[in-house]
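Handout, section B. The chain below has 456 residues.
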Amino acid sequence: MRKILIPVLLLILAGLCSAAPESTLSLPEETEKSEEVRKTPEKESQETRDSREDESEIDRILSGEETIPLVSEEELAQTLGQKVDAALDWFHRERHALFVLLTGAVLTIGIGIGLGIGMQKIIRAQRAVKQNSLRWQLIWALSLPLLLLGVVIALFLLMLPVLQTLPRLYKFDARLFFTLVTLIITWAGMRLISVLSMRMSQYAASADNNLDQLMVEITRKVLKITLIIVSILFIGQSIFNLNITTLLAGAGVVGLAIAFASRETLANFFGTLVIILDRPFRCGDRIQVNGVDGLVKAVGMRSTRILTADESVYTIPNSRIAECDIENISNHGVIRFAFTIGLVYETPGGDIEKAMKILHEIVDDFHGKDPQSRQPRVFFETLGSSALNLKVIMWLKTTTYETEEKWRTEINLAIINRFNEAGLNMAYNTVTSYLRGDPAYPFRLESSPAQEPKQP
């Protein structure tokens, strides 16, 4: 009978325990928690009183009511001795971990440097053979960042056993480690953007596309600036726990004030957008804008740099370029060359026709066949004040300064030689005065006798 009752009682107790509410079962724990809660204000009040006493003591010292307590040499020596003993004891306990850290750090850095040098030699050799290989461009972009990332991770793992014994230093080192990892990833991203820029430049160099070098440069700059800003925000928000939201809100207010103060800079930025969208020229084109004739070297976010024939670089704000008339000389691959030649008034009509025929022989099909739309034109322009002016309009089949200067010299020398052989006299600015008899204005020449020298 007892053997039957004992299991039954146990089952009943188990059922009661399972049916009982959790609050009744956790009553002792809640009692302990309430005691801790009651104790916590007491501790906080005690700490608050101690801090107030410390603050009041500091205030009394600063106000001059009390003097700074002096530390005796024995106490100072005892404190320093304790610190030194603690440091020596720490070095004694962690000597094995420090030895492993030092040895591993030297080996890791040495292996990383060796692999980096070897990888660079292999990449240079391969890129010399395959300049346009995307595979080796990606290897060039990621090899050094990945090696540096591996070295940093290995050093952090080697330092981890030592850092676990230094709690204060561990938190700082962990933040420094993740900051270095973020910076290395940012560096790898910058190199990947450079590879993308090279590929886009190669695509822009081909003739069967609408992409130009200007779009490549602007895209590269925008991507790099965006990557840098995102990296800085990530480091501040996720690693150092800075309140980026408040910072961005304050930056927005400051940015609004800066926007009012820098209207010209914003105008240049929107001028850059107009140049990108409208694309009136490309990098390397020869243009004439705002009285400047030169080659477009670079287009920035604020201004455009133009190289002129005298090797001077003009920096023109993009807002001004967006508002001015732009003549793209390189648009059709030719340069319009117009000049005037004056013949003396004594030249008969037959010689004028002869001069026009000579000019056609010189400029027609000059260094290549002239298309029908750009046939050279030679005509008798005006009866000038001191010359009979012949106008020549032609197109030089080049856009470079050197070729243009060379061909202009060739044309001028040919004109002088052919005109001299034909006996044609070119005029220059002269003034001829004619004297006529007029009773109202008689013309009379007078001369005074020379004075004889006085004798002494």
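Note. Residues 200 and 216 are 6 Å apart (CA to CA). Compare this with the example in section A.
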